[in-house]
Specification:
The protein is an alpha+beta fold and 526 residues long. It has helices spanning 2-23, 26-29, 34-37, 48-69, 95-107, 127-152, 179-187, 208-214, 277-289, 325-337, 354-383, 386-407, 414-443, 448-480, 484-515, and strands at residues 31-32, 39-46, 76-81, 84-88, 111-117, 120-125, 158-161, 168-174, 192-196, 223-231, 237-246, 251-252, 256-263, 269-275, 295-299, 302-305, 316-319, 344-352, 411-412. It contains 15 helices and 19 strands. The strands form six sheets. Strands 7-8-2-18 form a four-stranded antiparallel sheet. Strands 3-4-6-5 form a four-stranded antiparallel sheet. A hairpin with a 5-residue loop joins strand 13 and strand 14.
Length: 526
């Protein structure tokens, strides 16, 4: 018996000491949520129209490319709406090839032919496909924002979709000390394109009107006009020039494999990048065939630079553009994590100051201390010396809860503190069930040892029922809740497991230690 008691004591000691070490020092090991340490709360909306336009343009451009590969040249596309386009330049002899080799093979599942008239075919995206693309845009934006926040180094961020089918994303960033930079990183679409400057317009223009006039007053569909901002040595915009570039993209940011901050030929900050295999092939073909021409590097609709192509480039390159070091670092970060599929609009922004968070911590601690004192007094008054057993169990329960939070890297929130207080109450409740059952057995005339054995055995089912049903509720809160609700569910779940361990195993061990070495105990102070 004594040997078994010793083994149980060693196991309990190892568990308690292990969790106590995990939580020490608590100021460094416990992750605090937004409401306790301060930070940012953002609600964003994804402009899914942008993503829909980009994807449909990609499909229609591919239709034109597939036709060109089959020898049908001169076909051009016209955008009518975001989901409706016209292919112009098809002859009646081209229709069979278009239908069999292009339409049926690649596009008939997601697009419909709206009309045919002469050399013009109008195609429209299926409504179900449009909804799917919008949903995918929000999902992709969610993952991209999460990757950017992770790269920025924010501990325990909350990044979730506001609801099923919603275009809104909720972002909570605890401990952020540079909110404007974080906002720029999140909102920066970082859509990178490489486009050839128009062959007959290799120079820039002082304003957009001059560029349009150079094209005869009308911008044809094969060209677009983009601005480039000229900055001084301190990064301020001093002037703006305009370039005429081809509408067709050589490659985009999707073709990048990696990007990192670097230094240029004269030590200026630049972004170096590496293409993936397919991107390198396309870039090599384009640069090799256009040596001597200018290649515009377009980022979010603005040209960063337009260098000359001096030779075939297939694997890597640099992005220049009067950047400072922080801009280079941030741009490389967002390029690595991928471009947002659409632009982002801020609908709501709240900043929780660290002073308010510290006030919440202090009030939570005060509530816990006051509640703990009343619980301890109640247990000692009602159950006398046996109440000491409950007090020890209660203290160990709190150590185990905080140790588990530190060990698993969970985040403690203000509702999480409420969850801890609730589990303290449940731990006390388990002891009350056991102690009352022991009292009943003593009143029935059982010996102290028999009363303790029977009390634990008969109270166990009630304790398990109460705790497991609460654990199931906590699991649903975690699965379907967000932010602080999840924090409450985590601490509640951890607290339930800890209270089961302390109330059933540790409390019984303390009674057994009290009875050890005594043949008969006549009285129990309960």
């Amino acid at each position: 018996m004594e040997r078994t008691l010793l083994v149980r004591g060693i196991i309990i000691l190892i568990v308690v000491v292990g969790f106590a070490i995990a939580v020490y020092p608590p100021g460094e090991t416990i992750n605090l949520g937004l409401d306790l340490q301060g930070g940012m709360h953002l609600v964003l909306r994804v402009n899914t129209d942008d993503a829909l336009r980009t994807e449909t343009e990609f499909d229609v451009d591919r239709m034109v490319e597939e036709l060109a590969d089959l020898g049908i040249e001169g076909v051009r596309s016209e955008r009518l709406t975001d989901t409706r386009y016209a292919l112009v330049g098809l002859s009646s002899d081209d229709y069979p090839t278009f239908d069999k080799e292009v339409w049926d093979r690649f596009f008939s599942q997601t697009w419909d032919i709206a009309s045919r008239s002469g050399d013009r075919v109008e195609v429209t995206l299926e409504s179900g496909q449009a909804s799917q693309l919008r949903d995918q845009a929000v999902t992709q934006a969610l993952e991209t924002i999460r990757n950017r926040v992770d790269e920025f180094g924010v501990a325990e961020p909350v990044i979730v979709r506001e609801g099923l089918g919603s275009e809104r994303i909720v972002v909570q960033l605890p401990g952020v000390d540079d909110p404007e930079r974080v906002k720029d990183l999140i909102k920066n679409t970082a859509f990178l394109e490489f486009r050839l400057v128009a062959p007959a317009h290799q120079g820039s223009y002082p304003n957009r009107e001059s560029a349009v006039a150079a094209l005869g007053g009308v911008v044809p569909s094969e060209y677009e006009i983009f601005p480039e901002q000229i900055r001084n040595d301190v990064g301020q915009v001093t002037d703006e020039i305009w370039w005429i570039v081809e509408s067709k993209r050589v490659v985009t940011g999707r073709d990048l494999r990696n990007a990192s901050p670097s230094s240029g030929q004269f030590g200026e900050p630049v972004v170096s990048f590496t293409f993936n295999l397919e991107g390198g092939r396309k870039f090599g073909e384009a640069t090799g065939a256009n040596i001597g021409r200018k290649l515009a590097i377009v980022l979010d609709g603005k040209i960063r630079s337009a260098p000359n192509i001096n030779g075939r480039i297939t694997t890597d390159g640099i992005i220049q553009g009067d950047f400072n070091q922080q801009e280079v670092t941030d741009l490389a970060m967002v390029l690595r994590t991928g471009a947002l599929p659409a632009s982002i609009v801020y609908l709501e922004e709240r900043t929780v100051g660290p002073t308010l968070g510290q006030d919440s911590i202090e009030r939570g601690e005060l509530a816990g201390v006051i509640g703990g004192i009343f619980v301890i007094l109640a247990m000692l008054i009602v159950y006398r010396l046996t109440g000491v057993n409950a007090v020890v169990v209660l203290a160990l329960n709190i150590v185990l809860v905080f140790g588990a939070l530190a060990l698993f890297g969970a985040t403690l929130t203000l509702p999480g503190i409420a969850g801890i207080v609730l589990t303290v109450g449940m731990a006390v409740d388990a002891n009350v069930l056991i102690f009352e059952r022991i009292r009943e057995e003593l009143r029935a005339g059982r010996t102290v040892k028999a009363a303790i054995d029977t009390g634990f055995d008969k109270a166990l089912s009630s304790i398990l029922d109460a705790n497991f049903t609460t654990l199931i509720a906590a699991a649903f809160l975690f699965l379907f809740g967000t932010g602080p609700i999840r924090g409450f569910a985590v601490t509640l779940s951890v607290g339930i497991v800890a209270s089961l361990f302390t109330a059933v195993i540790v409390s019984r061990f303390l009674f057994d230690v009290q009875l050890a070495g005594k043949r008969r105990v006549e009285k129990l102070s309960i």
